[in-house]
Amino acid sequence: MKLQTILIDDEPLGLRILADDLQQVPTIQLIGQFTKPFEGLQLIQQGKVDLLFLDIQMPTLLGTDFLRSLAQPPMVIFTTAYDHYALEGFELNAIDYLLKPIRIDRLLRACNKAYEQFNLKQKPDAAAQADTFFFVKTEYKETKIYHHDILYIEGLKDYVKIHLESQPGKPILTRLNVKAMEARLDSKQFCRVHQSFIVPISRITAFHKTQILLGGKVIPVGERFADQFLAMYRSR
Questions:
Q1: Dihedral of the CA atoms 218, 53, 9, 24 (nearest 10)?
Q2: Is this model's pTM higher than 0.70 or not?
Q3: Is pLDDT of 11 > 50?
Q4: 184, 143 in Cβ contact below 8 A?
Q5: DSSP codes joined into one string, 87-134
Q6: Residue 144, helix vs strand vs coil
Q7: How confident is the model at residue 234 (pLDDT cuts 50, 70, 90)?
Q8: Mean pLDDT, range 184-200, rounded to an integer
Q9: Hey, CA dihedral for 49, 232, 147, 131, is it positive or negative?
Q10: Which helix or strand (DSSP H or E) is residue 164 part of?
Q11: Bridge-partner residues for 76, per DSSP?
């Protein structure tokens, strides 16, 4: 299996040289090359990127700041002409930090590290794979809700809407308030981010101080829930 890889570097020549070198690495599959950070954002948010080669010193946005903006970043290898970002890079859990001009042996070593890390993450966790669920009353019957199927939960006074991946556009409506609904959920998987919204952490594709993006759905972050959400997200 090859790592689906994109490159982001504002220098077209450097981008081309790196792409040419990576074509020789058997574990790498290049799926995109971009000269501006946000040009590659859609592929990342769609979960199609396993590995990102990211320049740091770019005119529109520092690569380190771009990485911080991603709710679920792929594995990252920084590529830069400056060594003074190294500590910050590793604090952001980068796989490696390559100084330009990049030697082919260092590039191969970085790619091997990324491939090993990827394989470690693929080992199944029996507990995580379990299809956990709960029941709610709706339309005079008990309905089974699988945790992994939940897109987000929306509060409406004394009711909640449970939006499900398996039923797009047809949420489950049940007579519970948001607090009672929150009590039924695993606090390690779900977080209340607003008076009226609970989200599954694994579905967050990007976030801002006042908003969360779940794919194409924007969820507001309430001021009194923001610190709790950020602490929970960063601890994962």
A1: -140
A2: no
A3: yes
A4: no
A5: HHHHHTT-SEEEESSPPHHHHHHHHHHHHHHHHHHHS--HHHHS--EE
A6: strand
A7: low
A8: 90
A9: positive
A10: strand 159-164
A11: 52
Band (230; pLDDT cuts 50, 70, 90): confident
> In the sheet that 51-55 helps form, which strands lie side by side, from edge to edge?
28-34, 3-8, 51-55, 75-80, 96-99
Does the pLDDT of residue 233 top 80, yes or no? no
Looking at 2.60.40.150, 1.20.120.450, 2.60.40.1930, 2.40.50.1020, the CATH number of the domain 129-234 comes to 2.40.50.1020
Confidence band, pLDDT 50/70/90 cuts, at residue 127? very low
In the chain, list all ranges with CATH 3.40.50.2300: 3-122
User: Could you give the 3-state DSSP secondary structure of residue 39?
Assistant: helix
74-107 pLDDT tens trace:
999 999 888 777 777 667 788 888 999 999 999 9
Residues carrying CATH 2.40.50.1020, the chain:
129-234
Give Cα separations from 171 to 153, 185, 190 (angstroms): 9, 17, 18
What is the DSSP code string of 170-236? --EEES--HHHHHHTS-TTTEEEEETTEEEEGGG--EE-SSEEEETTEEEE--HHHHHHHHHHHHT-
- First-to-last CA distance in the chain? 26
Nearest CA to 18 out of 87, 88, 106, 86 is that of 106
User: Looking at the domain that runs over 3-122, which CATH code has it been given?
Assistant: 3.40.50.2300
Using omega within 30 degrees of 0 as the cis cutoff, is the peptide bond preceding 124 cis? no
